[in-house]
Specification:
The complex is a heterodimer. By secondary structure, chain A is mostly helical. Chain A is built from 17 helices and no strands. The relative contact order of chain A is 0.19. By secondary structure, chain B is mainly alpha-helical. The chains are: A mainly alpha, B mainly alpha.
Chain lengths: 372, 420
């Protein structure tokens, strides 16, 4: 059994990665580029200290986004709305953060609180629609994504935008008390020298805490047990006293709250205001990372780092006349490949378990089925 | 009054649709009288609404084939993106009609991929759809970066400008040419008489029949063709049976996996055609992100239309009309809001006659809110209007999800020869 689980959780993503890089290599060969040189360039550039720090920075929002998706996945709820949720939450957080001024820790806490509340509030809508009106959460969250895009564009341009005529259109700058300090001085203290410009974002610590919290919530708590039970067999969970409606509402609120935090790392660690080109796609890529990491906190951390690494190391490709968009293909194929490979591998493992059980009990499922 | 209501309620579905459509136009005409604009029911609004509705219609019909065969398809957007890219490339390399064909094939490839994942490998349909959307975007960006180099006048995010498909006027109805002879323009003549209401209807019909495209005609023709294919042929019965109960279908000898492949690949082809329409009729260029979520609106139209072809058409016309308001200026939007207010209050009165007091109160209160909004606000934000189709979809779902009936085994995992 143990080896079976290892097989599915490690081998499946590994095969998927090989498939993805293989297809991407074919694509590169077709346009006359040597894929091995390209991959080598990516590796050399991606493993410099600066690149590794940026890899981690890239990975933080993806990891938080994956957590938000995974919490829903665990009970069979599919929250596609992370993308819209975090944009809206980041905008509100940036606006409120710029309006208040208080002591450093309190200021950051207030901003985080706003982000969580907006995220959870937005995710409450599909939860309510599902529980009270029977609307499927996938459709509701897809529609709410676009409503969130429109609403945040409207609020940004008409309400929250700063009056000062600057070069960039953005909300007011958050006072320095509301910034999350960089961890680079800490790195320097333990002897890792990094060139200026690469600041390890302090939100990393919060993200790790969220990951640990997720692990305990899902795997060690009463709530997590109910959550997983509802996901695997809703009827049985209901029979044993789990209220499915309450579970849906709570899970969506947690998912939305986490989604609200997705944009905080770049907001408080880099931009300190909400610009018009606030980074997008963390929500959609978070779904990919959650699938890649099989909803496991460590797995998703690896997945997020992998995506962050690809995003960073692709930058060198442009200088070598290789289209860096190859990385988006790798990411797309990885998602599709990992779910397919997982299905195939788990079916294989299942068959092996049945076979070994049959061997242990001298029971041949095939002949006995024919006899019956 | 109540006998009229009774007669309406006992009438055919088709008659009721016509009654609702006529009532909607009447309400909008009244709103125009108040605001003093005439653009809400003019031919340009109607033709813009139709032009914007067709890609939604095609994507929605695509979703219909897939979901009727039992495969949930939220990958419509990714398939449409592929359609836009290949249509532009085909039109740029060869010509507009080749572009249409390549767009359809580009969508079909991603449909095949979705079928492979969901039907053959039994991957969760929504997971696969999400992956298709991510892959579609990434793959097209990669192709753009290779093909649309600066030397060609394009870039990573857009193609060089391409020749679109020409527009035509329908003969007799909108004064189109027939073998070089100018036929009479019936609807245009009626519209220009400026009779109350009658001219408004004529204006809308003139917009639907003049300056339209072959692809528009094809899209509209696909509605009855789909209805006939899925409901009047043995093939359609088999396809739908896979969406309702694949295990029963299997026991009757239907090749379920094959039917599902048909459904999903046709879904990809129609989404690709929707993409081709965007490039060759609307924009004349490929731009990254030009689909702008229309695949998802197509999904909304599919749900709005209760998984029926004519319903999908209705849903896409509603969304297309909502979309067209964005380009029509603030006055038109204001008249539309007034029309919504009048319509809701009238609907409230209808509910009251049917003695459904709670519904009546809610409808009249919301209608009054729209009326207040109309009186207070001078200009409605374009950003908020962009959310209209999605809000409508959510409202329809919230109000009517109990009355909607999706195919019973839509999204179910099915493996050949296994128990349910």
């Amino acid at each position: 059994m143990k080896s079976g689980r290892l097989l599915t959780s490690v081998v499946a993503p590994a095969i998927a990665l090989i498939i993805a890089f293989g297809f991407a290599a074919i694509a590169l060969l077709l346009v006359g580029i040597d894929p091995l040189t390209a991959y080598k360039e990516m590796w050399v550039f991606g493993t410099t200290p600066e690149s590794l720090i940026i890899t981690v920075n890239n990975a933080i929002p993806l990891f938080v986004s994956a957590l938000a998706v995974a919490v829903g996945f665990k009970m069979g709820l599919f929250n596609i709305g992370v993308e819209g949720t975090y944009l809206l939450a980041s905008l509100f957080a940036a606006y409120v953060g710029a309006q208040i001024s208080t002591t450093p820790v309190l200021h950051v806490t207030a901003i985080l609180l706003v982000a969580v509340l907006v995220g959870a509030g937005w995710a409450w809508i599909p939860a309510y629609l599902k529980v009270k009106r029977g609307v499927h959460e996938v459709i509701a969250t897809i529609m709410l994504n676009y409503i969130a895009f429109a609403l945040s564009a409207y609020l940004f341009l008409n309400v929250f935008r700063a009056d000062t005529a600057g070069l960039t259109i953005a909300t007011d700058l958050i006072p320095e008390t509301g910034w999350i300090p960089s961890l680079t001085p800490l790195l320097a203290a333990i002897g890792i020298e990094v060139r200026a410009g690469a600041n390890l974002q302090g939100f990393l610590i919060i993200a790790i805490a969220l990951g640990v919290g997720y692990h305990y919530l899902v795997n060690k708590s009463r709530f997590g047990y109910d959550l997983r039970a509802s996901g695997i067999n809703p009827t049985a969970a209901h029979a044993s006293g789990v209220d499915p409606k309450k579970m849906i509402i709570r899970t969506m609120l947690i998912s939305g709250g986490l989604a609200g935090l997705v944009g905080i790392a770049p907001l408080l660690g880099f931009y300190h205001q909400y610009p018009q080109d606030f980074p997008r796609n963390f929500g959609f890529n978070g779904i990919a990372v959650a699938l890649l990491g099989r909803n496991n906190a460590v797995g998703m951390a690896f997945g997020a780092l992998l995506f962050g690494f690809m995003q960073r190391s692709a930058l060198i490709l442009d200088l070598r006349d290789v289209p860096k968009e190859i990385v988006t293909i790798i990411q797309g194929i990885v998602v599709l490949a990992v779910v397919i490979v997982y299905e195939v591998v788990s079916k294989y493992v299942q068959r092996r378990v049945i076979a070994s059980a049959a061997a242990a009990t001298d029971f041949d499922p095939v002949t006995s089925a024919e006899a019956a | 009054m109540s006998t009229l209501v009774d007669r309406y309620r006992k009438a055919d579905r088709g008659v009721r649709v016509v009654v609702i459509a006529v009532a909607a136009v009447l309400v909008m005409t009244l709103a125009e009288l108040v605001t003093g604009t005439s653009d809400l029911t003019s031919r340009s609004t109607a033709s813009a609404a139709l032009r914007l509705a067709i890609p939604i219609l095609l994507a929605g019909l695509g979703g219909l084939y897939s979901e009727r065969s039992g495969v949930v398809n939220i990958g419509l957007e990714g398939m449409m993106i592929s359609g836009t890219w290949f249509a532009a490339w085909g039109a740029w390399m060869f010509g507009p009609w080749e572009g249409v064909i390549l767009g359809v094939l580009g969508g079909a490839v991603f449909g095949l991929l979705h079928a492979l994942a969901t039907v053959t490998f039994n991957v969760d349909h929504i997971v696969s759809g999400v992956a298709i959307n991510i892959l579609g975007l990434g793959a097209m960006r990669f192709l753009s970066s290779i093909v649309y180099t600066p030397e060609t006048g394009g870039s990573v995010i857009q193609s060089p400008p391409i020749d679109g498909l020409p527009n035509i006027d329908l003969p007799f109805l909108a004064g189109g040419q027939l073998f070089g002879w100018n036929s009479p323009d019936f609807f245009g003549w009626l519209e220009n008489l400026e009779l109350f209401f009658l001219s408004d209807i004529a204006g809308i019909l003139r917009g639907f029949t003049g300056g339209i495209n072959w692809l528009t005609l094809l899209g509209l023709a696909l509605v009855p063709i789909t209805a006939w294919l899925l409901w009047k042929t043995p093939w359609g019965l088999r396809l739908r049976s896979c969406g309702e109960d694949p295990w029963a279908a299997e026991s009757l000898g239907v090749r379920v996996l094959r039917m599902k492949y048909y459904g999903v690949i046709i879904s990809g082809m129609l989404s690709g055609l929707a993409g081709a329409f965007l490039v060759l009729v609307q924009a004349g260029i490929y731009r990254e992100g030009m689909t702008g979520g229309r695949g998802f609106i197509g999904l909304g139209a599919l749900i709005f239309g209760n998984w029926m072809p004519v319903g999908v058409l209705g849903g896409s016309l509603v969304f297309g009309f909502g979309d067209s308001l964005r380009f029509r200026g603030p006055e038109v939007v204001r008249s539309f809001i007034l029309a919504v207010a009048i319509g809701l209050i009238a609907y409230g009165a209808y509910s009251a006659v049917r003695s459904r007091l709670r519904a009546a109160i809610i409808q009249i209160v919301i209608g009054a809110a729209f009326l207040v909004y109309y009186l207070q606000v001078v200009e409605v934000s374009n950003q908020l209007l962009a959310a209209l189709p999605y809000v409508i979809t959510l409202l329809v779902l919230a109000a009517a999800s109990q009355h909607l009936r999706m195919p019973a085994a839509d999204g179910a995992r099915y493996a050949k020869g296994e128990a349910r």
